[in-house]
């Protein structure tokens, strides 16, 4: 139980805290900047999407009016859908706490093993209308299912590898605990928190396991190798919102981007598509832009 002094201190200091919505917006922007550096084609895609969205709205006043009426017109360029995969329940639990600081909560449950993918997933996102209108950033988060590795010895090696790693920096953990203890973070701490958490999502180009173990993990499933073999997870796709998927894909080759042969998303429709589809290949064939 908080003492009267501590409770009063938190109340007095709460006015100096940055809102979870503001922290989420800062993190989304920082993530986009980092991903643009890691995957240069993503920066080109953002420009194409902005161009297509502007032309689509100019050609369809009805769509523009509908988006304006639902308070979504101004946020189109800010919408992002990211995805990350973690290896252990403990890592997922920490991410839950991290996302809570940003006002993002788990919504939905998806057992992707039904599609032959050894993970189950949820989406962390803001849940209230007001928070969604401020910044609707969400992260589709998947947890590896080690129980689906048939080889018991390989399963144990994967478990030990994952248990030995720490995917969060020491400072990120300290700031998370501070936010939970005090009920929030001021602007300075929030800025540091965003940068430290960003490290968890950063691309790692060197495996932390032997070539032999990587090969065996990959033979079991390439996603298992991707999750287990590195010192931490990484953002494996980040998508902007588009109002015309087909137009974006048509412009990609002329702008130096090789689209996938098939758009992995909904069919063409007159209503806005929520996000750019899985149409662009990325680092090592592992990073893609993905249909929400």
TrEMBL record:
- Indicate the family of this protein: Belongs to the 2-oxoadipate dioxygenase/decarboxylase family.
Q: Which UniProt keywords apply?
A: Dioxygenase, Iron, Oxidoreductase
Q: Name one Pfam family in it.
A: HGLS
The name of this protein is 2-oxoadipate dioxygenase/decarboxylase
Question: Which EC number applies?
Answer: 1.13.11.93
Going by the entry's taxonomy, the superkingdom of the source organism is recorded as Bacteria
Keyword Iron attached = yes
Q: Which InterPro entries match?
A: HGLS, YdcJ_bac-like
Q: Which organism is it from?
A: Phyllobacterium ifriqiyense
Question: What is its cofactor?
Answer: Fe(2+)
Q: Does the keyword Iron apply?
A: yes
């Amino acid at each position: 139980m908080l003492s009267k002094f501590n409770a009063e201190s938190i109340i007095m200091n709460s006015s100096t805290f940055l809102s979870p919505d503001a922290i989420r917006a800062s993190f989304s922007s920082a993530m986009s900047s980092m991903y643009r550096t890691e995957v240069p084609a993503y920066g080109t895609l953002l420009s194409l999407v902005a161009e297509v969205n502007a032309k689509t709205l100019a050609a369809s006043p009805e769509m523009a009016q509908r988006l304006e009426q639902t308070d979504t017109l101004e946020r189109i360029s800010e919408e992002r859908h990211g995805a990350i995969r973690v290896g252990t329940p403990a890592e997922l639990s920490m991410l839950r706490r991290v996302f809570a600081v940003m006002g993002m909560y788990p919504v939905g449950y998806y057992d992707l093993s039904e599609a032959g993918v050894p993970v189950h997933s949820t989406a962390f996102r803001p849940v209230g209308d007001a928070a969604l209108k401020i910044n609707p950033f969400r992260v589709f988060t998947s947890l590896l299912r080690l129980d689906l590795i048939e080889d018991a010895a390989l399963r144990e090696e994967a478990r030990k590898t994952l248990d030995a790693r720490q995917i969060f920096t020491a400072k990120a953990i300290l700031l998370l605990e501070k936010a939970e203890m005090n009920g929030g973070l001021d602007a300075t701490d929030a800025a540091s928190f965003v940068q430290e958490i960003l490290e968890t999502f950063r691309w790692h180009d060197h495996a932390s396991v032997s070539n032999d173990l990587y090969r065996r993990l990959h033979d079991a499933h390439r996603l298992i190798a991707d999750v287990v073999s590195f010192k931490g997870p990484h953002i494996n796709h980040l998508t902007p919102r588009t109002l015309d998927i087909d137009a974006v894909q048509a412009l990609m080759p002329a702008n130096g981007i090789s689209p996938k042969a098939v758009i992995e998303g909904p069919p063409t429709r007159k209503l806005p598509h929520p996000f750019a589809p899985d149409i662009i290949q990325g680092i090592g064939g592992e990073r893609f832009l993905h249909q929400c």
